[in-house]
Amino acid sequence: MQRTWKPNVTVAAVIEQDGRFLLVEEHTSEGLRLNQPAGHLECGESLVEASVREALEETAHRFVPECLVGVYQWPRPQGDLTYLRFAFGGRVDGVEAGRCLDDGIVRALWMSADELRACPQRHRSPLVLQCVEDWLAGQRHALDLIRHYHA
Predict the structure, then answer these.
(1) Which residue has the higher pLDDT, 80 or 114?
(2) I need a labelling partner for 107 at 20 to 30 A (CA). Which of 34, 39, 43, 97 fits?
(3) Chain mean pLDDT for the chain
(4) How far apart are CA 61 and CA 59, in angstroms?
(5) Model confidence over 82-93: pLDDT tens digits?
(6) Residue 2: its pLDDT value, please?
(7) Distance (Å, rounded) from C-alpha 66 to C-alpha 91?
(8) What domains can be seen in the chain, in order of their start residue?
(9) Distance CA 38, CA 58 (A)
């Protein structure tokens, strides 16, 4: 039986505070890489719910999504995977001190856009910087653009 191709649906949280962006440093098959708090959509959750969950699991920060920054399609050059990323912009509403971070996450850190631009070889994908650039360019779309229907 032939497998039907489908993209991997992911979410990301674009969080800027005092001119710095919340990122994670994580272990990948290519070594330590930088990414927004991001991950896969899980069964039964909305895209917005997934972004909140991923930000908390990866950074211990409570993320409040306020807008959709963009939707990004990226086929990985290393294989047959294509990612469909929904990037949400928003703010932090506190930190859960002492919370353990997801496996593979080394730390959460804040970086300026210039610091991020200076190290593209450390990015998990080209989407990391693109989401920041789109945020800085003022890309903001209403959350009601996305409809989630429960079964």
Answers:
(1) 114
(2) 43
(3) 95
(4) 5
(5) 999 999 999 999
(6) 66
(7) 7
(8) 8-145 (3.90.79.10)
(9) 8
Helix residue ranges, H only, 33-97:
47-59
Write down the pTM of the prediction.
0.94
Measured on CA atoms in the order 63, 67, 70, 71, is the torsion positive or negative? Answer: positive
Q: Output the pLDDT for position 78.
A: 77
Element counts in the chain: helices (H) and strands (E): 3, 7
Identify the burial level of 77 via C-beta atoms within 10 angstroms of its C-beta, where 0-12 means exposed, 13-18 middle and 19 or more buried.
Answer: exposed
Angle (CA) 122-28-51 rounded to 5° is: 85
Lookup: tokens for 142: 């209403």
Residue found by looking up tokens 């856009």 in the block: 113
Report d(CA 91, CA 65) in Å as an integer: 7
